[in-house]
Amino acid sequence: MALSRTCDGVARRDFLKVGFLAGAGLTLSNYLRLAEAGEVQQGRAEAAIFINLQGGPSHMDMFDLKPNAPSEFRGAFNPIKTNVPGVEICEHLPHLAQCADKYAILRGVTHTLGAHQLGTEYVNTGNRPLPSLEYPGYGAVVTKEKEQSALEDLPPFVAIPNSAQRAGFLGVKYAPLNTAATPRPGQPFSVRGIALGNGLTVAEVEKRQALLRNLDTAFKGFEASNQLLDGLDRFSDQAYSIITSKRTRDAFDVGKESAEFAKPFGEDPFGMSCLLATRLVESGVRFVTISLGGWDTHQDNFTRLKTNLLPKFDVGLAALLNGLDQKGLLGKTAVFVTGEFGRTPKINTRSAEGGRDHYPRCMFMLMAGGGVRGGQVLGESDETASAPKNEGFSPDDVAASFYYNLGIDHTKEYHSDTGRPITIVRDGKVIQSLFA
User: 158 and 16, same structural domain?
Assistant: First the structure.
């Protein structure tokens, strides 16, 4: 999957380098009453898949169409019915229309950060970026909160092919394993650092690990309180476990899926990434990110969406949701789909057919799995999708809800290496109607 470059000249690679090294508000009393009556589903997901639509997808051309708006707003696409009565989405998302009962659409999500990197940092952490602090992404927090000591040979956090989520102040021990590539149909998928290549044998790896342990003993004490070395030690130990583990190599081998199960995912790199994510979660990986770029459609918005972006997104995400359900994993896996912002409701005239520009004031997000009740639309935008019709949701609210779905208290405090107390999500509140 090729890395894309956004209009501000920032290559996704420039801020994705982590890898191995680096309207539904309820009062508290009402919520407690619902919870006591069993009408609120508690967070129950054990793993998560986060899909990042890099560049900012157009909400008006996907999940928040306005067919009655003036022509300079509504665009070229028509809405179609879904398998949920009263819910309509874009005509170029037919597969997602047939599984709308499996996900919830959040409309009227709103914020004010219209630059790619700032918006990306916001929606990947649930906190507005600060110059003095780097917040950890969702994957780092989930890795910390859901330790998988019994599965040490599996990486807890995998990014396909890379991720905008950083470990932040938690340190590199919670950074993701970047696959740096996507699976391709009919070809063995090799992840650098996992496959044994160039004639290397497990016995040779074991000899090298023994040497490293001897060196660690000799220099023990020098690494005290050093977050970087602590993280590198963890990666070294985990790399050894991964390389020598057949289970891990099998988890990354999408060729082991039956042809019948794999067929709906198609052959596009995004669909194959969704297939891999499904397999990784089934194997015990706690958190997987998938990146799909190209949504920065300042020009030729409708052609680019219709002929390229929407078809592969539609096939891949629908197959992911249906595949998780087929394997009995959807109830255990929180799914979160978002871009960094929406796009301008009014079509620009800088190209023959026009395009849409950056627009954080109104956007969509999708959530599914775990305790999320699918088949619903929460929030609403105004008649031109220019702003929330009512209060709207913030990325902080959605982040709090995502953590809630995973059984993680978003108000929990961590401490930086200087002792500074930092809340996981600083401002958000759980959107209870997602789960009621």
Answer: yes
Total domains, the chain: 2
Instruction: Specify if 4 maps to a domain.
Output: no
Whether 258 maps to a domain, the answer reads no
DSSP3 helix / strand / coil % (the chain, rounded to 5)? 35, 15, 50
Same domain, 17 and 136: yes
pLDDT tens sequence across 102-129: 999 999 999 999 999 999 999 999 999 9
pLDDT digits (tens, 9 = 90+) for 8-52: 665 544 444 333 333 334 444 554 454 455 444 455 899 999 999
End position of a domain, from candidates 220, 251, 282: 251
For residues 270-282, average pLDDT: 97
Distance CA 179, CA 162 (A): 7
- For residues 248 and 258, give the distance between their C-alpha atoms in angstroms, rounded to a whole number: 18
Residue among 293, 294, 297 nearest 350 (CA) = 297
Q: Do residues 360 and 369 lie in contact, with contact meaning Cβ atoms separated by under 8 Å?
A: no
Q: Is residue 228 part of a domain?
A: yes
- Cα–Cα distance measured from residue 215 to residue 232, given in angstroms and rounded to the nearest whole number: 14
Angle CA 410–358–271, to nearest 5: 70
pTM of the model: 0.85
Task: Give the sheet arrangement for strand 47-53, strand by strand.
Answer: 177-178, 157-160, 287-292, 47-53, 333-339, 363-368, 103-109, 376-378
Range of the domain at 226: 192-251
